[in-house]
Amino acid sequence: MALGNHSAITEFILLGLSADPHVQVLSFVLFLAIYLLTLLGNLTMMLVIRADSHLHTPMYFFLSHLSFLDFCFSSATVPKMLEILLSQKKTVSVEACLAQVFFVFDLGGTEACLLSVMAYDRYAAICHPLLYGQKMSNQLCKGLALGSWSLGFLDAFINILLAMDFDFCRDQFIPSYSCELPSLFPLSCSDVSTSLTILLCSSLLHGLGTCFLIILSYTLIVSTILSISSSSHRSKAFSTCSSHLTAVLLFYCSAFLRYIVPTSGSPLELVFSVQYSVMTPLMNPLVYSLKNNEVKAAMKRTFRKYLHC
Questions:
Q1: Residue 195 and which of 97, 105, 116, 179 are 20 to 30 A apart at CA?
Q2: Cβ proximity of 39 and 117 under 8 Å
Q3: What is the DSSP string of 73-88?
Q4: What does the pLDDT read at residue 258?
Q5: Residue 6: its pLDDT value, please?
Q6: Does the pLDDT value for residue 308 go beyond 70?
Q7: For 185-224, how does the pLDDT look when each residue is reduced to its tens digit (9 = 90+)?
Q8: Biggest alpha carbon distance in the chain?
Q9: Intra-chain end-to-end CA distance of the chain, in Å
């Protein structure tokens, strides 16, 4: 697809969060701290899962993929935002903008698939504990992870292929700190109806499809847990799902609000975008480390081992 079509406008101006220099400096400090914590949290999670043999299970195999995803997701958006907050020239080339759109879409789609796979893992562990090893074999886990990455890539590739044919000759201003596909539609003077339809259909199919699998898994999980006679066992079973449920709610609520709600350029839309691409990658490692006793114990063992080295 010809990027040469983008002759009228070769770069966009990202308006960011605020035009006030004092707010920009404070925002830079805040988002730099969030970014560093995100990198640290997700790298720590990956290191602990790799180093501690107690976490070499399907659940934590998928969690390590989720941590890597969040590491990449944050790195696809936040560094450019930090640059814009400090720079006088708040521009991004059309090609760089489309590349960012692709990676945000790819990583977001992969995360949706991975969260549904993790829900199936919890279903297999709680509803079929005796067959869990057979149901979640090493080969199947690798296949499910690969499938999640492949579906995310395919979804992003289809959408970006159509976006690469846009002719941008209207306003250069994007009322955000990053490039996302919904923000590009108002800037195009070519027909975007096909791309808009594909975006809506792919978002609904991808989002609702994975959401349906999660709801189905948890319906069966709840039904199984309620049939357990011991209250302590019920509580333990619920606690193994609480971290994943929190991650699901954080991701799906912000993603649906960002991609399903029509683009308006309102401040609320900017809040949804920040929640989706900045806060969610930070919250996932915090949720899994604070709410999961196995991860907390593994962290203590890992840090103790490295301190003694």
A1: 116
A2: no
A3: HHHHHHHHHHHHHH-S
A4: 66
A5: 44
A6: no
A7: 888 888 888 888 898 888 888 888 999 999 999 999 999 9
A8: 69
A9: 54
What's the token pair of residue 49?
């899962």
pLDDT of residue 269: 67
Q: Residue 122's pLDDT band (boundaries 50, 70, 90)?
A: very high
Contacting residues for 29 by C-beta, under 8 A, at least 6 apart: none
Is the distance from CB of 214 to CB of 115 less than 8 angstroms?
yes
Best mean pLDDT range from 44-48, 171-175, 302-306: 44-48
pLDDT at 3: 45
List the beta strands (DSSP E) in the chain. Answer: 11-14, 91-93, 173-174
For residues 261 and 211, give the distance between their C-alpha atoms in angstroms, rounded to a whole number. Answer: 17
Helix (H, G, I), strand (E, B) or coil at 67: helix
Bridge partner residues of 174 (DSSP):
14
Torsional class of 14: left (φ above 0), alpha (ψ -120 to 50), beta (otherwise): beta
Beta bridge pairs of residue 168: 188
Rounded Cα distance, 278 and 236, in Å: 31
Question: What percentage of residues in the chain have a pLDDT greater than 70?
Answer: 90
Q: What residues contact residue 171 under an 8 Å CB cut-off, 6+ apart?
A: 186, 187
The set of long-range contacts for 220-229, using a CB threshold of 8 Å and a minimum separation of 24, is 220/123, 220/127, 221/122, 221/123, 221/126, 221/127, 224/126, 224/127, 225/126
Which two tokens mark 67? 């941590």
Q: How far apart are CA 254 and CA 50, in angstroms?
A: 30
Helix (H) or strand (E) holding 109: helix 94-127
Contact 70, 280 (CB under 8 A): yes
Highest mean pLDDT among 116-125, 159-168, 202-211: 116-125
Count of all residues that appear for the chain in the document = 309
